[in-house]
Amino acid sequence: MSDALSREHHLRHRAERVRADLEALWGDELPEAPDPVLTVLVDAVAVDDQHGVDDRLVVQGDGLGYEALARVLADVRSSATLHLVPPALRARLAGVLPPTGRLIDLRVAGEAALQSESTGAWEYDATADTVAWDARSGVLYGLGQHPGVASLPEWLRRSVHDEDRSLVSSALHSSASTGLPYDVRFRIAPPRHGVVVARGRVLNGPGGGARVLGFAAEDVGVG
Fold first, then answer.
1. pLDDT, tens digit, 9 for 90 and up, residues 45-74
2. 126, 138, 188, 220: which has the fewest C-beta neighbours closer than 10 Å?
3. Is 70 exposed, middle or buried (0-12, 13-18, 19+ CB in 10 A)?
4. Could you report the per-residue pLDDT of 17-46, keeping only the tens digit for each?
């Protein structure tokens, strides 16, 4: 069977499945609604979309499966890429993304490396919604040369420029919920000046709670 005939067969089969479900829903009559034709159209789209979910497909037309998309996103290893995915699809992918495995030392590991002797360590606990940092990170964040812990909102207020707080918060939550790496560049809060680059990986605890562990360093590319 040629590609054109195969695609036509697939589309016809897809349409028949939708028609059968609509007949089961409405029978031979139009629905009682102010605009019955529009109602049928909306129901047809909803039914077709549900078929895709049932078949574990992201897009029915090209047969792209959730697992295939998850593998691509995991290979890219960029939390910024995941931000381009609609939230509903992002949530579905979270359950099929490959496990993150052991924590990689981001100070020396490949593209994630932070080449700096003054690199600090930090951790975000998604369950408690808290950020902990070592003494070096405290200096980078302008919090003094000592370790500490604070709620995420408090840490954002004290350490991150107000225009960058939404970006940092969203990236942390996204990484914790999907398992994809965390990679963010942000300005520190005034009156201090400086830019920090922070990278992390996700570890899942035995109770299911996620922790993002990583390292931070001054962005040496900023003049």
1. 888 878 887 777 777 767 777 777 776 666
2. 220
3. buried
4. 888 888 888 787 877 777 778 877 888 888
- With both helix axes pointing from N to C terminus, report the angle between 165-178 and 87-94 in degrees, rounded to the nearest 10: 40
Q: Among 26, 59, 94, give the residue marking a domain's end.
A: 94
Q: Burial level of 87, CB count in 10 A (0-12/13-18/19+)?
A: exposed
Domain count, the chain: 2
Runs of H (alpha helix) within 55-187 = 66-76, 79-82, 87-94, 135-141, 152-159, 165-178
Percentage of the chain lying above the pLDDT 70 cut: 74
CA dihedral 35, 41, 43, 46 (to 10 degrees): -140
155, part of any domain: yes
pTM for the complete prediction? 0.50
Range of the structural domain that residue 89 is part of: 3-94
State whether 155 and 212 are in the same domain.
yes
d(C-alpha 49, C-alpha 151), whole Å = 39
Distance CA 217, CA 198 (A): 7
Kindly state whether residues 119 and 39 are assigned to the same domain: no
Determine contact, residues 44/22, Cβ cutoff 8 Å.
yes
Q: Name the maximum alpha-carbon separation found in the chain.
A: 74
Whether residue 153 is found in the same domain as residue 73: no
